[in-house]
């Protein structure tokens, strides 16, 4: 029976090639989107699970609070892990990571700039899966003066050969390369390229032989610990209370503070939604839910297409079904045959989708455009392959089940007499399914337009400082910093350059955080602020405006007597007249005073509110040289900087970037989300139009005699198009009425993620419906018009 069913299935598919091709193409699109999303979600949901000890490795983070202060930080003191390991036997190993930041690597007098550089411990091999392609993992970081580098860094420095045992100068030290490791996978929350052995002693943990509790409140590195098998997190927390009281609270009591330890399991860090300062970029679980929902919707649209086309062809198959029943086929055999037809088409579509997704991931710029990076690992992952096969089987059965039940019920007598007609129930079902398709398509389309509108708003909003015509030059090298004044004087003579300043901090890229003491309620109280180091030209170079008072004088030689705050800081402190108020650093005996108040500006992305800020005068050059240039003078500015730089700092390569590029990077995750949903929107529309094409072609074929009669009676082609399209138009408009309120509710929730947001554009929502109307009109109109233009005798000659 199975062989006969397969024969009938293939015969039918070959006989109705047009509809079969439409079905297979639509199913292939749906399965391709689903398969790509499954691989994407697999990559996202397995962050850090490639590390063998991910279930026992934890990052230590802290919540440190006091009156006016709260640090919720991913960093902690480098002195903490050895103390924990000494007092808690359940800790097997630890690894500390001190960030050097972007630094210079020198090899044979050739200089390279490198980021993701850290000092660490030998225990890094216990926490992370550092896969050495050269070197011995048991001792690669055990001796001072050792460094291990990623394969990508090795290739930059040494080309095709491995640089094991070579000497490099990094961060002012001569180091020997003792290992080369494979670059970490993209789905690692923590990325490093260069690891240097040894954590420098900060030298103030012990004072006169007594432990200095304050040292633990001064976080300087990322700390990870590895617990033994079967340890209890609850028991550790209980035991930690005594440690906390002994080592943290002596200083905590002095400042009326409190300390809470947080343990973050390695595999949970990326999607931990607790706001933490100085943390790595986090994943958004809401996005995963949205992407999954849209992916399932696309697959559902493809299934709906199949059901619609299969049931709409019931009239064409009536005689075939009638004959098979007369010849002895029972209803279960017919149903099996019809489900097999569905499964065969889904299998063909699945094979096409595998090829399409493989090409999309491995041999197209799609992922670079989207901003994601993962490999095609379907066949390397048996669980994933099994899941995809289950999806294919379920898709085939779901798609074919209703048509099998519906068509198999055709009565042979009416079918053979030619009097069988589809009931109203089948027609209503098809209309309902088409309506569902367009509700999904219009909803996703309008959501995409609104998301794009919000991202454009963020990129164009005035942040309170000039982000265009600002160039940032890396000045981490001590020689470059020593020559800053020479560079500044010469560059300011260039007609294309309007201003030059220096700082350790630049808005958007990085801001410091510090505790000050301020005049409040008649006494000096501690207060946490964000802070920026800035020279006397900082405001004019970046275009930041003063609200009152003045900025620093260029002849000032100290940074602890005068302070400039922003309006938010003044409001926080309740200062109606801030100028002259006392202010100083936490340990400063004699405070300085506030001399100026800045107009508020956004120094973080527009996801965040403006926070209290202090600009601290820094008489020494910082890590960045900030250059403001004239509009449309970018090439001249770069040429001027290169010339002056090569004269003043000949042995250090010029490394620069534009501030607006850094700002744009703040919204990369939003842009990626918008691009992905936009791509899925296009698929939704295409699949819906494929289904509409098949239904329209079938309906036009069914009504070809009616169209011929109308033509003979004088009807115009446009009238016939309007007649056929009218029912589709009603469905589109009804779908719009259902989709728009749902989209409005969903987008209101999405907009809540932004501190600054544009108003919900109703015009764009209506535009989504209009676009659907136009697309469907063009499609239906072209199909109907093609039939309406034919000579009516072709359809009436058999009557």
UniProtKB/TrEMBL annotation:
Keyword flag Membrane: yes
Q: How does the protein's chain sit in the membrane according to the entry? A: Multi-pass membrane protein
**What residue range is the signal peptide?**
none
User: What are the record keywords, sorted?
Assistant: Cell membrane, Membrane, Transmembrane, Transmembrane helix
Q: Where in the cell is it found?
A: Cell membrane
The transmembrane segments are 21-41, 288-309, 338-361, 384-408, 433-451, 676-700, 720-742, 762-785
The MacB-like periplasmic core domain sits at: 20-196, 440-604
Gene Ontology terms: cellular component: plasma membrane
Domain ABC3 transporter permease C-terminal positions: 294-411, 679-792
Q: Does the keyword Ribosomal protein apply?
A: no
InterPro entries documented for this protein = ABC3_permease_C, MacB_PCD, Macrolide_Exporter_MacB
The UniProt GO MF terms for this protein read: transmembrane transporter activity
Q: What is this protein called?
A: Putative ABC transport system permease protein
Upper classification of the organism: Bacteria, Pseudomonadati, Bacteroidota, Cytophagia, Cytophagales
């Amino acid at each position: 029976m199975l062989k006969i069913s397969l024969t009938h299935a293939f015969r039918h598919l070959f006989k109705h090639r047009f509809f079969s091709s439409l079905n297979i193409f639509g199913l292939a699109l749906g399965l391709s989107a689903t398969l790509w999303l499954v691989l994407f979600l697999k990559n996202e949901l397995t962050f850090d699970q490639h590390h063998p000890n991910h279930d026992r490795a934890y990052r230590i983070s802290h919540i440190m609070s006091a009156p006016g202060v709260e640090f919720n930080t991913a960093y902690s003191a480098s002195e903490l892990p050895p103390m924990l390991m000494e007092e808690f036997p359940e800790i097997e190993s630890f690894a500390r990571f001190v960030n050097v930041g972007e630094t210079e690597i020198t090899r044979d007098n050739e200089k390279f700039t490198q980021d993701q550089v850290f000092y660490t411990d030998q225990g890094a091999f216990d926490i992370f899966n550092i896969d050495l392609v050269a070197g011995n993992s048991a001792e690669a970081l055990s001796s001072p003066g050792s460094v291990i580098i990623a394969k990508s860094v090795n290739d930059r420095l040494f080309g095709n050969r491995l640089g094991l045992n070579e000497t490099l100068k990094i961060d002012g030290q001569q180091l020997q390369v003792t290992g080369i490791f494979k670059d970490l996978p993209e789905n690692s929350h923590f990325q490093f390229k260069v690891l240097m052995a040894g954590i420098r002693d900060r030298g103030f943990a012990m004072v006169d032989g007594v432990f200095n509790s304050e040292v633990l409140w001064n976080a300087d590195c990322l700390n990870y610990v590895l617990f033994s098998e079967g340890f209890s997190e609850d028991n550790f927390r209980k035991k930690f209370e005594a440690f906390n009281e002994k080592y943290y609270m002596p200083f905590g009591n002095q400042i009326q503070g409190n300390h809470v330890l947080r343990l973050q399991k390695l595999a949970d860090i990326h999607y931990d939604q607790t706001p933490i300062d100085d943390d790595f970029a986090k994943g958004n679980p809401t996005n995963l839910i949205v992407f999954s929902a849209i992916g399932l919707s696309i697959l559902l649209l493809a299934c709906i297409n199949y059901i619609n086309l299969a049931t709409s062809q019931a009239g064409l198959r009536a005689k075939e079904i009638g004959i098979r029943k007369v010849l002895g086929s029972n209803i279960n055999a017919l149903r099996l045959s019809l489900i097999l037809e569905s499964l065969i088409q889904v299998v063909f579509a699945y094979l096409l989708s595998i090829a399409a997704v493989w090409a999309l991931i491995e041999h197209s710029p799609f992922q670079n455009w989207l901003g994601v990076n993962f490999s095609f690992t379907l066949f390397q992952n048996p669980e994933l392959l099994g899941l995809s096969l289950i999806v294919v089987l379920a898709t085939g059965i779901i798609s074919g089940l209703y048509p099998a039940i519906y068509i198999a019920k055709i009565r042979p007598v009416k079918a053979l007499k030619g009097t069988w007609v589809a009931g109203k129930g089948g027609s209503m079902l098809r209309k309902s399914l088409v309506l569902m398709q367009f509700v999904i398509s219009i909803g996703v389309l309008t959501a995409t337009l609104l998301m794009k509108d919000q991202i454009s708003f963020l990129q164009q909003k005035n942040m309170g400082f000039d982000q265009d015509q600002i160039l940032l030059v890396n000045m981490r090298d001590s020689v470059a910093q020593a020559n800053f004044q020479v560079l500044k004087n010469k560059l300011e003579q260039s007609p294309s350059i309007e201003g030059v300043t220096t700082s350790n901090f630049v808005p958007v890229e990085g801001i410091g955080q510090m505790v000050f003491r301020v005049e409040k309620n008649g006494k000096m109280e501690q207060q946490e602020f964000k802070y920026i180091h800035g020279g006397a030209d900082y405001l004019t170079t970046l275009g930041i405006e003063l609200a009152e008072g003045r900025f620093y004088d260029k002849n000032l030689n100290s940074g602890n007597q005068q302070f400039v705050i922003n309006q938010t800081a003044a409001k926080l402190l309740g200062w109606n007249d801030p100028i002259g108020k006392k202010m100083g650093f936490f340990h400063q005996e004699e405070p300085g005073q506030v001399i100026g108040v800045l107009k508020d500006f956004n120094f973080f992305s527009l996801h965040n509110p403006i926070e209290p800020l202090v600009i601290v005068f820094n008489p020494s050059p910082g890590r960045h040289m900030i250059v403001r240039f004239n509009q449309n003078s970018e090439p001249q500015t770069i040429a001027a900087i290169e010339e002056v730089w090569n004269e003043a700092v000949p042995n250090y390569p010029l490394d620069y970037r534009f501030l607006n590029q850094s700002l744009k990077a703040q919204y990369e995750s939003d842009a990626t989300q918008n691009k992905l949903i936009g791509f899925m929107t296009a698929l939704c529309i295409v699949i819906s139009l494929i289904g509409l094409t098949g239904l329209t072609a079938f309906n036009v074929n069914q009504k070809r005699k009616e169209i011929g009669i109308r033509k003979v009676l004088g009807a115009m082609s446009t009238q016939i198009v309007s007649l056929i399209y009218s029912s589709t138009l009603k469905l589109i408009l009804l779908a719009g009425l259902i989709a728009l309120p749902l989209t409005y509710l969903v987008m209101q929730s999405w907009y809540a993620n932004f501190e600054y947001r544009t108003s919900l554009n109703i015009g764009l929502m209506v535009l989504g419906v209009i676009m659907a109307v136009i697309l469907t009109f063009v499609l239906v109109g072209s199909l109907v018009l093609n039939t309406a233009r034919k000579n009516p005798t072709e359809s009436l000659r058999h009557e």
